[in-house]
Amino acid sequence: MSRQLHILTGPTAVGKTALALEWAEANGAEIVSCDASLFYRGMDIGTAKPTAAERARVRHWLIDLCGVRERMDVAKYVELARAACEDIAGRGRRVLVTGGSGFYLKSFFGPVADTIEIPATVREEVAELERAGGVAALEARLREVSGDALGGLDLANPRRLTRALERCLATGRTVGELAAEFYAKPGPFADWDVRAVCLMREDAELRARVEARVGQMLRDGLVEEVRRLRAEGIEENPSAASAIGYRETLAVLRGEAAEAGLAEAISLNTWKLVRKQKTWFRTQVPEGRMRQVDAKTARADGLFA
Fold first, then answer.
1. Per the CB 3.0–4.6 Å rule, which of 78, 92, 229, 288 could disulfide with 234?
2. Cβ–Cβ < 8 Å for 232, 42
3. How far apart are CA 300 and CA 18, in angstroms?
4. Structural domains counted in the chain
5. For 175-220, what is each residue's pLDDT tens digit?
6. Cα angle at 103 between 99 and 108, to 5 degrees?
């Protein structure tokens, strides 16, 4: 019988942290983070990172893994998450994954990273094509080698186009063939019994919680935190520097935006993220694999029943 892995997710500010702690304490669990911004040391206030007191209550994994200059990717995350889950289960404890970063969360439901090696010559060919003709040139070349069946590929995203074209050129296969081959593979947690719950709230309530959270972050010293992280090199890492709360504050510190509008800017962008997260939960998790629960009435007892 496969081992159980519990996932508690939901959009930003929905109330995951408090319920995760409650469930973990009641069920002898340890928490594995699935939040891309919690990897970085020093990114505390703007990420609403679990406090030292909360981490003393329940052991947390995959928090404060690296400095803000360092990069993380899904392949490394999967390796670390599997090791954490094996360690926890091996000691007879339960595993609770919590967070709302969709790309990392997806690794618990299926494959997320391929093993195709891209020759340097192919990378240079594609890079030169983008330099010469931009997104239009990338799309035209991709249609040449793959036809018009490009699935749900975001054609306005240069990074996605680049990755797709590199893989087609490196393998001689079409986008459709590569996708079919990829999704036929077992995911990294296929040998676990994954049980997932997604917390939700009404939009008006969730938006009010977002605004309250942003206000508290600013009172707690977000601007000073970002000023310190800027000195540590956060701008050298696009993933960390583009995290909501950090990118808006960096714009203020660079003189590109007024501090008077900072709370509004962070709240607006957080709300845009929430809407994207809600769409992701609805469309990207395989049907029947995740149960939605009203965060207002959710209780640890019976959460994963």
1. 229
2. yes
3. 10
4. 2
5. 989 988 888 889 999 999 999 999 999 999 999 999 999 999 999 9
6. 70
